[in-house]
Amino acid sequence: MSTILVVEDGLTDMQVISRYLEQAGYSVMGATSSEEAQEKITQNKPDMIFLDVILPGKSGFEICRELKNNPNTKTIPVVFCSTKNTDVDKMWGDMLGADAYLSKPVQKEELEGILQKLKK
Q1: pLDDT tens per residue, range 20-60
Q2: Burial, 5: exposed, middle or buried (Cβ in 10 Å; 0-12, 13-18, 19+)?
Q3: Would 37 disulfide with which of 14, 31, 79, 117, CB 3.0-4.6 Å?
Q4: φ, ψ for residue 91 (rounded to 5)?
Q5: DSSP symbols for 58-83
Q6: Is the pTM of this model over 0.90?
Q7: All domains in the chain, ordered by first residue
Q8: Which residue from 59, 62, 3 is spatially nearest to 28, judged by alpha carbons?
Q9: How far apart are CA 71 and CA 107, in angstroms?
């Protein structure tokens, strides 16, 4: 079973995303800050990361840039999850190496489509 790290500081969004992922057969770890996310990535190396853009501490954009520049984590797919659903934000995500962009509120069908696209 693949493990997905969900980095989300909003409790409701964390619960919704986690539930959809578990229903799709994934094991889910959660983190509510950039610091906690970095600890879990180092300790557990998830198979995929769903990453909120706006977080306490570093932004999701900063975390993604660090992950994609690190040889140990650069191949982990990163999916941005954000209410900031502008073309500029999506462009930044692409430039930083994000593999997909999921709009909030999260729709189960959109999330499942991203999972299918990113399956190895």
Answers
A1: 999 999 999 999 999 999 999 999 999 999 999 999 899 99
A2: buried
A3: 31
A4: -60, -45
A5: S-HHHHHHHHHHSTTTTTS-EEEEES
A6: yes
A7: 3-118 (3.40.50.2300)
A8: 3
A9: 32
